[in-house]
């Protein structure tokens, strides 16, 4: 198909497609004339992935480039390719050296070891969790995360990973992982707050049929 | 205690305390001389709550005011007070009228009814979940959220709500809810991504002992 058809099919503006081509996010089409290139399904699939990373994953273009490089590097296992995308989705954490940090980091490493999880010692997600544990400690909250870890483990093993097509095109696996991580994460977060409201009503017997004062939103 | 002692005890700068007093976020101390007011534990507790809402909840001052009003309004049940804080923590969602929105909203309402949850029909969290369901549908993802809902329900009923001191000072209950919602939410999100990595290693057999290309972070 021509670039105009690719634009219609993908819903991505021609100018944006040309920007992705210049940036190397989208591979060039097959040149069939001096001023005309031919695009195919692989371009459509790639555009879907770029939009997922950009609009749902909210990744900056530099991070998207790294993910695309991992998708294109066929020597990289599917596991490492997915890891590149997964790590890019997390916030960038600067470890804060000191005793407090080291204690929290030790706690995180012990938790992962006790669970028997196969997680890289270099995974930035360990730092991310460490930072949250430090903050919890400072605020006097319990840092025992075993029940959360077991809950996450069950959810991921029994439901989440089944939505990732490990045997399909590499783009499709990354796209499913990114969309699933972000959107099911967002859904779970809202469901958790809905469950809080319901459980609070059950425990303290307040009616959930009234609108709390200060809420001026329409339902 | 004097304002200088309140500052030392709370770790909040005097200028900031005076700002909270002017904004009405912090109640005035007992005036014991023309230029001297006396503060007590209630001020310390309030400052802790303000910091939790500001630094962990990332709420704007206007939203913090609404939460504080709900804490101060003793005629408001603990359930409705917590609801005010909980609703303030969610993003502000503008419903997008149309068939797509109505279908997704119907799905959310049906899910909550099937679960038997006691959630206000006006809860903005319903809109929040609706928006995520709309996005999932547009992206061709499964919008069956029952397994996520059951997981959230179990976590909240068996662990989370136990950390909220319903019988203590009103500030303490709100503080625990806000800190727990945000920080355990953040921890769960990181744990879920760690479980993804581990489950991916198990399913496709990649070694998690290598660092994915594109990661330049130290562990």
TrEMBL record, chains A, B:
Pfam annotation, one family: MerR_1
Q: Which domain of life is it from?
A: Bacteria
Q: Where is this region: Disordered?
A: 199-219
Q: Where is the HTH merR-type domain?
A: 1-70
How is this protein named in the record? MerR family transcriptional regulator
């Amino acid at each position: 198909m021509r670039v105009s058809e690719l634009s219609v099919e993908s819903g991505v503006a021609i100018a944006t497609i040309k920007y992705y081509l210049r940036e190397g996010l989208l591979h060039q089409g097959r040149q069939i004339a001096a001023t005309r290139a031919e695009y195919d399904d692989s371009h459509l699939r790639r555009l879907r992935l770029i939009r997922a990373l950009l609009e749902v994953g909210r990744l900056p273009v530099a991070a998207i480039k790294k993910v695309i490089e991992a998708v294109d590097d066929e020597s990289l296992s599917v596991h490492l390719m997915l890891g590149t995308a997964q790590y890019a989705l997390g916030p960038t954490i600067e470890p804060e050296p000191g005793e407090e940090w080291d204690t929290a980091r030790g706690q995180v490493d012990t938790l992962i070891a006790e669970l028997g999880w196969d997680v890289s010692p270099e995974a930035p997600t360990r730092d991310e969790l460490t930072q949250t544990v430090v903050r919890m400690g400072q605020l006097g909250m319990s840092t025992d995360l075993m029940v959360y870890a077991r809950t996450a483990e069950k959810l991921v093993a029994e439901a989440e990973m089944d939505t990732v097509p490990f045997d399909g095109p590499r783009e499709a696996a990354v796209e499913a992982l990114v969309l699933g991580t972000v959107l099911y994460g967002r859904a779970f977060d809202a469901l958790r707050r809905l469950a809080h409201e319901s459980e609070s009503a059950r425990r303290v017997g307040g009616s959930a049929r009234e609108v709390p004062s200060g809420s001026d939103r329409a339902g």
